[in-house]
Structure formats: structure tokens, C-alpha cells
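Quick sanity check, RNA polymerase subunit sigma-24:
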Amino acid sequence: MTVEDYNEAVNRHADAVFRFVLKNIRDEEKARDIVQDSFEKLWMHLLSVDAAKVKSYLFSTAYHRTIDVIRKDQRQQLLDDKQLPEEGHFTQYSDVGEVLNQAIKLLPEDQRSVLMLRDYEGYSYKEISEITALSEAQVKVYIYRARVFLKNYIGKLDVLV
């Protein structure tokens, strides 16, 4: 990979990586740091990364760094494993996006990450498995479980309108 390829990667992928990270951790400063760390790692491995696989490399790096930051924050706050609420969301809202974002925050980090990669970034199951180092079957299971939880949490759409 050349310096020109690196600069092109920054121009092409920085926004998408930032959106992905921000959607997972909801902290702009930490998201910027993770994106910067990802591009720094790419720079350090410039000669060993294939220019054709730079997008996958960046998302994999950002994904793993995001998981590290989430785990570090959890340890610092000494939070117990949180249990997903079994009851749905039954109060009346007119903003489906707000309810959906609240529900996504409650998902376990692995489910949230693969769901974001699939539904928000548009990656295929195979690409997600490469990024997250999970098997393709496990990616499908996590996405299915996340969608079932979101469906149960949101409840009937007529409650939202």
C-alpha cells in the first residue's frame, strides 16, 4: 500500500468508520479517538496491508478497538451484567427512531455491532464475519437475536403512532 492509497482510504472511509463507531458507543470524542487509532494502526502497517482490503482492515480495527473501549468503560464503572428487560415498550411515542435507538442501546455489544454493520452500513454476512472474526453462522444468529429483541421491545407499531 502506498501513501497515496492511504490518503485515499482516509478520504473514502473515515466518515463510514466514524458513523459505525459512534452508533455503537454514542460518544463523539471516544469515536473520534477510535477512528484516529484505526488509521494510525493502518499507517503503522502500511506496507503489509493490501490496498484492496483497506476498508475491511479499518472496520476490523475499529470494531476491535470499540469493543476494548466498551469493556474498559464497563470495568471502570464496575457495572454488573445488565439484564435485558422482558417487557416491551408500551408507552405512546410518535418518534419510532427514538424508541429504536433506546432499544439498540440495550442490546449486548456483539449483537449491537453486527446489527449496525448489517443494517446501517450494509455489509454482507461474510464481510461482517471477516470484520468481527466471528463465524458467518454466529453473525446470523446475533443479528436474528437482535432483531427479535428489537421487535419485542418496540411492540406493536400502532402503539408508537
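Posting the structure with no commentary besides this: Residues 54-77 form the longest helix (24 residues).
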